[in-house]
Specification:
alpha+beta; 6-stranded mixed sheet; 3 helices; 6 strands; globular
């Protein structure tokens, strides 16, 4: 669990969710999956922040933590989530670009699992 200015972020790998909490309330989340081939990668698909908590930097904190987790695990991030793609473009020092082959594999995985996200 990581702390970002009173917001606590917890990774629930089994559920594919990185959740931001204010106390016991979930105020935002990144839904993701783990890609195994052609290389291991975290693939964020959706970032959601509850309307009452928008504009507080929660989505950015979630993106930063996702890249932090990937870095600590020595894996890439292959972002499909439009928000995470934009965040990564603004923070290239924290968010290395994903290999195109990983991006294609991530897109193919989502297409092959239409009900997942």
């Amino acid at each position: 669990m990581s702390d970002y200015g009173g917001i606590h972020i917890r990774d629930d790998r089994a559920a594919g969710r990185l959740a931001a909490y204010a106390g016991d309330e979930v105020v935002g989340r990144v839904e993701y999956f783990v890609l195994d081939e052609p290389a291991r990668a975290l693939v964020p698909v959706h970032t959601i922040v509850e309307p009452a908590h928008e504009g507080k930097g929660i989505a950015g904190s979630l993106a930063r933590e996702l890249y932090g987790i990937a870095g600590r695990e020595g894996v890439a991030v292959a972002p499909l989530c439009p928000y995470v793609v934009k965040w990564a473009a603004r923070h290239p020092d924290e968010a290395p670009a994903a290999d195109p082959a990983l991006m294609r594999a991530a897109e193919e995985w989502v297409t092959a699992h239409p009900g997942r996200f």
